[in-house]
Amino acid sequence: MAQELSEEELLRVEVERLKKEVKNPRAPISKTGKEIKDYVEAQAGNDPLLTGVSEDKNPCKEKGTCVIN
């Protein structure tokens, strides 16, 4: 079903894609980078990789030991 497009058709498709992309709102990385940093720092207290998991909420904790008599 895939058809070969001529070079002209490929360029038209590329131009249409670029026209759509140019309409996307842009923000400077200096602003968005700071926002991301602030968000990550605000959420750090809830991150189990940073704070650890309490023993009572740890799903990987051994439930008990196996004793064979």
Automatic annotation (TrEMBL):
All copies of domain G protein gamma, residue ranges: 1-69
Entry keywords, A to Z: Cell membrane, Lipoprotein, Membrane, Methylation, Prenylation, Transducer
GO molecular function, one term: G-protein beta-subunit binding
Membrane topology, record value: Lipid-anchor
InterPro entries: G-protein_gamma, G-protein_gamma-like_dom, GGL_sf
SMART domains assigned to the protein according to its UniProt record, in alphabetical order: G_gamma, GGL
Localization in the cell: Cell membrane
A Gene Ontology term for the protein's cellular component: heterotrimeric G-protein complex
PROSITE patterns xref list: G_PROTEIN_GAMMA
Keyword Lipoprotein carried by entry: yes
Subunit architecture: G proteins are composed of 3 units; alpha, beta and gamma.
Name under which the protein is recorded: Guanine nucleotide-binding protein subunit gamma
Organism: Cnephaeus nilssonii (Northern bat)
